Amino acid sequence: MILTKLKLENFKRYEQFTLEFNQGLVGIIGKNGSGKSTIFEAIFFALYGELKTKGYKEVVRNANATSKDPVVVELEFEYEGVDYSVRREFRGKTLSANAKFFKADELVTTGAKEVTTSIVNLIKMSKDAFLHTLFASQKELASLSSLKNEDRKKMIRKLLGLEKIDFIEKELIEKSRELKREITAFAEFLMPQDEIEQKKKQKEEYELLDKELKQKQDTKIKQLDETTLKSLYIKKSLDLLQQTKDKKQDLFSKCELLKSTINSHLQNSDKLKQELESLDLKQKELKGLESVKHEYTQLHEAIKKQEELKQADIKKQSLLQEQENLREHYKKSRDTISRLEFETSAYTQAVEKQKSMQETLEQLSQSIKKNQLDINKLSSQIAGEQKLIEDINKKIENIQLLGKDSACPTCTRPLLEEYDLVLNSLEQIVNKTEKEKIDTLKEQKELLEVELKKLDETYKSLSDENLELSKNINLMENQKRDLLKEKEYFEKVKEQGLKNKTELEKLENINYVLQEHEELLEKQKHLKQKYEYVLSLEAMLKRVDSVKEDLEKTNENIKKYELEYNEKELEYKSVAYDTKQHEEKKKEYEQILKTKDEISNELNDIKVQVATMQGQIKNINQALSNNDKQLEKLGSKQDDLKDYDKIKISLASFKTKLNAKVAPRISDIASTMYSQITKGKYQHIEVSNDFDFYIYDEGKKYPIERFSGGEVDLANLVLRIAISKTLTELSGNNSVGFLAFDEVFGSQDENRRIEILEAFHTIKEQYRQIFLISHEIEIKEMFENIIEL
Questions:
Q1: Claim to verify: residue 379 and residue 399 sit in the same structural domain
Q2: This prediction's pTM
Q3: Which domain holds residue 444?
């Protein structure tokens, strides 16, 4: 795998950045904070969709980018002679992730998780293996020798992936302990052999008793069946007798009902005859009162005409009064219209004046806003300059705390003569900023604040005048609306007056006399009682035909019901029913049911005993079966324990062989490079199977802790390179052709740095690209290719 090109957009400190990677030994040089480490963080992010540190969404977007701007990382690389590219991006406030993966400009897959899976399948390397194999930082190198023995072993085993074997071995031990506990638990639940024999003997006894009970049960079932058949035969005869009884009782009830119905109809016939005789007398009385009805009708018509005259006269008087009121309203409305027209005559002029005044106010408002924005901008600039001074003062304090002889926290080299130069430079910046920029900005701010105060006063005065004018305009608008309503009302008064005049002309000849009307009402009052009696007689006589019809139907029904009664009476007498026979059959049926219940109870008792025996047999079978299952499970657990023991032995043997292979290989690679860098001063670095490190000096081996800081740094470097190369060989992935080291020169002098670079040249054949990150500007001439940030 060879890196060819990287594009960044709004990623961390980079807004727009493109970088092409060369092959060979490549130096990535830049001051602290220039974004050197960010480049490889972006490479890791492009391949695996993650940053080294969690919570990347809070810091991944560039500080100058908006929430609408996308965050884009695009990486191009070559793998086994084929060109690939991957593009990852975040969009929106929530930084929604998306990704695309291309092979030779052809889209392979999309989606963040899908792209990561495709890349892992391609390069056959997980994110952890990628970091441990291809990347190494100064901190990681130092930890190879500075950590305690046990912590260093854990770290190296993790780099080599051996901690997974340790984890499996630990799991196997724990699983073996768990199996032993389970085997002990299963054994405790097994039955003794004498108990098993006893249960088998009980089972044989229960089965023999169960067989005898079932024979008794079959006998009782046969007796119950015979009794049930006999009861059914008796029940059939009993049902036939009951049906005969029910039929006879039903016929008797119907005869009684018909007899009652005939009597009711006879009574109704007598009442209808009496009513007809009474109606004949009323008919004769009505003939003598026919003149009353005619006289009352004529009187009613005359009163009706008087009522019409009375209503017309009331309307006439009402119209005359309304006309008088309308004359007064007409005069008052005319005067109101004249007054309102005078009071609203200045409305148009006032509106034009207000429009001009509002334009002036808008101009003043815009000037005030602009002035306020300028003041705010100056305030922000002043605050920014003051914050800059505070930051520089803090830096001065930190440098003073460090002192001249202290080492740089990044490169570990002494500050020396640069100490005073840095302090003087920072103090000059503080004094210049304080004297020139802040004083100038404050002076500009004061002038703008005076101008703003004048504008506010002018705006307030003009606003008050505009408010008073608005009140007058609102008053005139209300008066204009009142004028319009008053004119509408004036027209309605005129229209109603003309309408009333027309109506009065129609009612001019109306002549209503109250005395005549009252005399007619008095006559009607005296004649009304006789008239109402005549109406009641007429209503009564309307029932004559109906009563005759009802009488005829009633007589017909009497004849019909008498005939039906005679038929039912004959049928009732013809039904033969023996009460004594019925009672005897009932007693016989009750006796057979009693016998049936006794047999049924005996049968149920036997069934309970059979069920009890079968339950006992089932419990014994269940106990024996459970014991067999426990024996089977115990055997299975014992077999599993044997398998785990075999695996533990094989895994321990595998670990021994793997350590015997890995440690010597790391030692060989590291020894060759270390001897070359130190010009043969140190011939060999030994790596034990437990990953303890020893350096040979003049044929004797010593722990790595014995040597100086520079020598230890070199040893850490060659060991880390050896571990990376061994990891690559173990994984069988020789297609990943680059390594990256961050700040590996440490406190080495110039000669030793040249030796380190020469050591890297020796492994260029195995790695087509080797990236070295450093903040040491003076070493950039030592590299074949330079990326300067």
A1: yes
A2: 0.42
A3: 344-505
